[in-house]
Every structure is written in C-alpha cells, then in structure tokens.
What we know:
The protein is mainly alpha-helical. The protein has one domain (36-560): Cytochrome c oxidase-like, subunit I domain (Cytochrome C Oxidase, Chain A, Up-down Bundle), CATH 1.20.210.10. It has helices at 21-33, 37-66, 76-110, 119-142, 173-201, 214-246, 259-293, 300-314, 329-341, 343-357, 366-389, 391-397, 401-431, 437-463, 480-510, 548-553, and strands at 144-145, 148-149. The protein has a two-stranded antiparallel ribbon. β1 and β2 (148-149) form a beta hairpin. The protein is globular and about 70 Å long.
Amino acid sequence: MSDRAIPIGESIDLTPPQGMAAGWLELLHDWVITVDHKKLGIMYIGYALIFLLVGGLEAMLIRVQLAVSNNHFLSPETYNRMFTMHGTTMVFLMGMPIIIGIANYLVPLMIGARDMAFPRLNAFSFWMTAFGGLLLYYSFIGGVGLYGAGSAPDVGWFAYAPLTEKAFSPGHTTDYWALALIVSGFGTIGAAVNIIATVISMRCKGMTLFRMPLLVWLNLVVASLILVTISPLTAAQIMLEIDRYLGGHFFDTQAGGSAIVWIHFFWIFGHPEVYVLVLPAFAIANEIIPVFSRKAIFGYPAMVAASVGIAFISLGVWAHHMFTVGMTSASNTFFVLSTEIVAIPTGIKIFNWLATIWGGKVRFTTAMLFCIGFLFQFLIAGLTGIMLSVAPWDWQLHNSFFVIAHFHYVLVGAITFCLFAAFYYWYPKVTGRMLDEKLGKWHFWLFVIGFHVTFDFMHIPGLLGMPRQIYTYEPGRGWDSWNMIVSLGGAVQAIAVLVFVFNLVWSYSKGTVAGADPWDAWTLEWATTSPPPVYNFAVEPVVSSRRPLWDLKHPEDPDSRYE
C-alpha cells in the first residue's frame, strides 16, 4: 500500500512515566475527559466485559442452584434477584454497550473520518450508560425491598406488571431497575443519533452508500432501530414510576389498568432488541468471513436489503411472546406469519455467507472458527424460533426451559460467538499486538463444547415441562440428570471465558507485534497504524470501490474491484 494514497499517522504512546503516580493520574484524567471515539469505544467494551463477568457469575449461581433437585444453595428471594440481574445485565449492560463500543471504534475508521459527528455527545452517551449500570448495581447496597435492605431487583428482566406495582413490590428495588434503564436508555439513544449522523454526513470522498463496508451499513440500520425500540421501553418505565408514586394506574389491574399493556410495551422493545443485538453480530461476520475466505462478500446488495428487511419486519413480531395471554385468533395468526416471514431475509444472509466461504481459500484462524460456529448455531436458533412461532406449539412450551435454550442459542451461540471473533480480528488494530492463536483455539473449543453441552441439553427439560422461573424442583420429574449436564456445560464455558480474559491480558504486553494490516484485509481501518493515531488519517482517504485497501495493494487484480 502506498502511504501517499492513504497517509497514516504515527501512533501515540499513552504510557505514563514509570514509577510516577502523577503520570497515572494524568492518564486516568485523559481517559475520563476524552471525546476521542477510539478511547470511548474501548471504554464501552471494557465496561461491557466487566458486566459479562458479573452476569456470567450470576448465571453460574443460577446453574448451581438448578443442578440438583430440592437444592437450597440459594434462597427463593436470592434466586429471583440473580435471575433478574443476570438477564438485565446481559442485555442492557453487556450486549448493548459492547455493540455500541465496537461501532464507536470502527465506524469512523471504516468511513475515513477522524471522529464521530458529535464527540461531546459521544462522551455524554457513554457516561450515561455507565451511570445506569452503576445505579442498577447500587441496589445491592441501597435497595430496600420486601425482604429488607440490600435487596436487588427481583421482578425478572421483563418486570411484568402488576408484580412491579407498589402493592407487590414495596421499597425501592424496582425503582432502581426502572431508573437505571431509563438513564442508560438515554445514553443508548444518544449513541444511536451519533452513529446515524456520522454515517450519513462524514464518509470520505468517493464512499457512496453502496461502497460502505457492510459493518457500517448494519450499524446504520441498528442505530435507526434503537431509536424506534428504546422509546416504548422508556415510556413504559416512566408510566410504571407514575403508577408507583403518582397514582397513575396504567398497569394497576385493581384500579382499571391493564397488565397486558405492559407486556405489549415491553415486547415492542424486547423482540426488536434481539435484532439490535444480532445485526451487529451479522456485521462482524460480514467483515471477517470474506477476509479469511479470500473472497468478496457474496451478494452485497442482497445483504444490505436483507438487513433492512430484518429490521423492518422485526417491528411487527413482538406479540409472539404473547400467544398465551388471550389475544384474538386474527392477532395470533398475524404474529405467526410475521415471525415466520422474518426467517426469509435471515436465510438470505446465511446462504450468502456460505456462498462466500464456498470455493474460497479459507484460513481457519480463531476469528474464522468463531464465525463458522456462529453460522451453525444461528441456523439451529432460527429453526427453534420458527417452531416457537407456531401458536399451538408455543402454547405448550411458553415460559419453559425450551424457550430459554432457544434465546440463548441466539444471544450466546450467535452474538457472543461473533463478539469473540471480533476480538480476535480487531484486537491487533486496537492494541498493536496479536492475540495468541493457541490460547484462542483452546478458548474456541472449550467454549463451543461447553455451549452445546449447556444449551443443546437445556431443550430437553423444557420439552419435559420444566418452567423457566422456578428456583428448585422435586425429584422424579425426569429433570435431574439433564440439569446436572447443563450446569456442567456452563462450568466449561466459564473456564473458556477465563482463558479468553487471560489471553487479552497476556497478549497486551507479550503478544506478537501486529503491524498495520496483519490479515491482508481491505477496509480502511487497516490503512492506518495499529493502534491508530488520535486523528486516524493525516489526509482524508479517497476510495473508488468497496475494497479500497485491497485495490491499492493489488492494482493488477481485476477481480479486486466491486462497484
């Protein structure tokens, strides 16, 4: 690559003088007040990783409790808190921040910009998100609930009314839950506005919409979806607080309110939220699979159209969570059909990924292995989703462990696998060091084995009738052995995550020096140093195709340009 075509800057050493506390304080101060999109992206990701470990610990406590029948390792009250905090943490404090952090770091680099459109809004959005998470977990100290002081929220991550009304949830634990998500929701909305403005207005010369990397396209779609979906959740939480303190009676069934209204508001957010999380996972696969297959993505226009189609259709599927609440036959039929239709654009994506791999010179790096695992597991998740879209089948399995197995196949089998792939692929860009591939392979195989032992077998107690919200169960129901297997699989996953964390820390100082472009890739983030300078590019890049860096490195290759 010619430095004259896309100039690169010098990386900046952020290490303070050794042995000087003042240097570390100055470094900390720089990070706290920063408006640099790269630093904010790293802080989003670090924040999410902390809550990944916290949420994972809560999951392990749940699995220890359910490993054997008649277990009293956790009390019913503590189990409800762990159940609530695990779900809330993984969706709102891990999933949302990490996808926003990745977008924060990569989108400006990929479109040849020097920063986000609104740097101060970017910083404000992060600190609002961070404060929301801290507020939620402060409930362990300051919360006062039905069981006394130090009570975390215990109403489930969906907080169904009327259990969240003052009569059934006294004290302030539910208020911590609602207020924390309102605060973090404002941060998420700010981030979404910033991503949209950045993509629309700050692309470098020559980068038309249909020359943008697919990761940028999908983050534009996701940011738009966030604006539509966070609003009803925030409105419902405000209505809940009005109910609890101002006598609003929106969800108070004894005063003419409707608990079903809460369910509608929550799932109008809750099911599109799945796509808010999974579309960025698709975006990661869209960038990694072509690089390690040595082929351009198959069917770029179809991939863009499918992404927009998924986002649009996802807004009309929420009530498949509500087949058992007594809707009309016409309503049930509509949501059955809309849920099945969303599989069509999703299937297009799967076939396009497979077509990209087919005939390619595949390199089985750790990042590629995680993407291949994602393809297999997301297919299974989609098939079980189609099963649950059929109202009579859903009637039998609603709120059973079959449903938990299904959505963990999406949240872990698809999203988390792609996030791990992203770490192995872009960690060299962020740190200038390669993650260790041997440790990466250990991480992959341990995690994939633990995942399948956990969530494959979790379907079975669900089919045998095990409800999802019980803290223990009687022996002799056929659930004991399956729950023990599931819990052991969870322990294997935990070991895999510890290997990953060790790899992150060890490679930061001991990893192989990466260089600017260790993967021989073709998008603009690899055109600058690793890590990039504060200003990203000394001169704004000029692009003429979807693979600008590849064109510069291989001008003799006629197949390298895709208009």
